[in-house]
Write a structure and sequence with these properties.
InterPro entries: Cyt_P450, Cyt_P450_B, Cyt_P450_CS, Cyt_P450_sf. By secondary structure, the chain is of the alpha+beta class. It has 16 helices and 13 strands. It has one domain: Cytochrome P450 (Cytochrome p450), CATH 1.10.630.10. The protein binds protoporphyrin IX containing FE.
């Protein structure tokens, strides 16, 4: 059970929070870097908003990921905080050592620097093709027409999804991870179809391996240990889902941040050598992952002044930690030449983002060409009309309509 201390209400559906959560996080952090909050339905959990405390929590083995560790009241009732439904079984983000160590070791053998570097020319080709299609158009939607197409194609390329299946693949993954008005039933159906498709693809790769990650995952072994069919399916699903939405939102958020800060955009456009540092700063400033996934207390523990009890749920607000003034002076200012390398946008500890290198490669490719291009464009709608996706975990725009500036 949660200790009775002062509890702040947090309403993730409040439109002003959805549009800009940073002032709320700043208030929470000023109050206490680790504190108890309650959702409007009364569910309570700990939220971590300080940078030091966030790093501590994400490397503390007493905070686990298995949803079964949660106290009963968080798993039951009409609106449980943590669902016990696991349509894709256990994967990296729902497992703890020693299971997590085993899975991560096997996947690390395939998700190598060499594989991602080898993919870079293909990423450029895909990105250039998409941007060529936009050149000359008076108006386009950067999220719909570019950002959401790039990562799906790249993930398909990485996994070895046949070209002809990619349109269908994107429809399913969008319905599963970012349903836009669809019913729960439609989402379940898409999940089922995606699962069936991936199982068949895995079977195919076992029979006819190719030079792709999925074939390598099927074959990978460590001391005679291999991934089971169920684990392969979960892994493929995780890569697809996690790798898609994050990259879409990274590109959308970063483009908007640069357009709101034209002097920073001009610097980047003038000097492409700044792009790597700029990407770290853009992730720090308004990254695509607002909070970590849930962590559950395996035992009673203390972080800072907070007495966390076994079964309590903990959320690390990465967006808050990344604007902690103790670590980043003038945190609300975008400054692409600051050292933002200690940002926590990719997490920390054993669950540190597996796809960080891929995400950086995609963003680097995108912004080398996008930054000069964005200078010739402006928002095609008033800023207040931009709509952000609701929910605590992901931060991203539904659409970013841009139009060419005419002289
Ligand atoms: C585009 C920007 C991305 C950001 C900001 C991001 C961020 C994160 C964060 C914060 C975590 C840790 C979550 C936690 O500890 O609760 C994570 C984990 C993970 N990410 Fe990413 N991610 C990105 C892209 C990707 C891509 C492209 C892939 C793969 C194709 C990927 C695959 C994963 C996986 C598999 C994990 C789980 C690792 C584990 O539990 O061991 N991510 N990511």
């Amino acid at each position: 059970m949660v200790t009775p201390t002062s509890i702040t209400e947090l309403d993730p559906a409040d439109p002003s929070f959805v549009a800009n959560p940073h002032p709320t996080y700043a208030r929470l952090r000023a109050n206490s870097p680790v504190q108890l909050v309650a959702l409007p339905n009364g569910t309570r959990f700990w939220i971590i908003t300080g940078h030091d405390e966030a790093r501590l929590a994400m490397s503390d083995h007493r905070l686990g990921k298995d949803p079964g560790l949660a106290a009963e009241h968080l798993r039951s009732g009409p609106n449980p905080l943590l669902s016990e439904k696991r349509p894709f079984g256990n994967h990296l983000l729902t497992s703890d050592p020693p299971d997590h160590s085993r899975l991560r070791k096997l996947v690390n053998k395939t998700f190598t620097v060499r594989r991602i570097s080898a993919l870079s020319p293909r990423i450029r080709e895909i990105s250039d093709g998409l941007l060529d299609d936009l050149t000359g158009r008076a108006q386009f939607d950067l999220v719909e027409d570019y950002a959401s197409l790039l990562p799906t194609s790249v993930i398909c390329e990485l996994l070895g999804v046949p070209y002809d299946d990619r349109g269908q693949f994107r429809t399913w993954s969008t319905a599963v991870v970012s349903p836009n008005g669809g019913s729960a039933e439609q989402r379940d159906t898409a999940g089922y179809e995606l699962r069936t498709y991936l199982s068949e693809l895995i079977r195919l790769k076992a029979v006819t391996p190719a030079d792709d990650l999925l074939s390598e995952l099927v074959a990978v072994s460590e001391d005679g240990d291999r991934l089971s069919s169920a684990e392969l399916l979960s892994m493929a699903f995780l890569l697809l889902v996690v790798g898609h939405e994050t990259t879409v939102n990274l590109i959308g958020n970063a483009a908007l941040a640069l357009m709101r800060n034209p002097e920073q955009l001009a610097r980047l456009a003038a000097d492409p050598g700044l792009v790597d540092g700029a990407i770290d700063e853009l992730i720090r400033y308004d990254g695509p992952i607002e909070t970590s996934t849930w962590r559950l207390a395996i035992t009673d523990l203390r972080i800072g002044a907070a007495e966390i009890r076994q079964g309590d749920a903990v959320l690390v607000a990465l967006a808050a930690a990344n604007r902690d003034p103790e670590h980043f002076p003038a945190p609300d200012l975008l400054n692409i030449t600051r050292d933002a390398s200690r940002h926590l946008g990719f997490g920390h500890g054993i669950h540190y983002c597996l796809g960080a290198q891929l995400a950086r490669a995609e963003a680097r490719t995108a912004f080398r060409r996008l930054s000069p291009m964005l200078r010739d464009h402006e928002l095609a709608v008033p800023e207040e009309q931009l709509e952000w996706r609701p929910g605590l975990l992901a931060r991203g725009l539904f659409r970013l309509p841009l139009r060419r500036i005419t002289a």
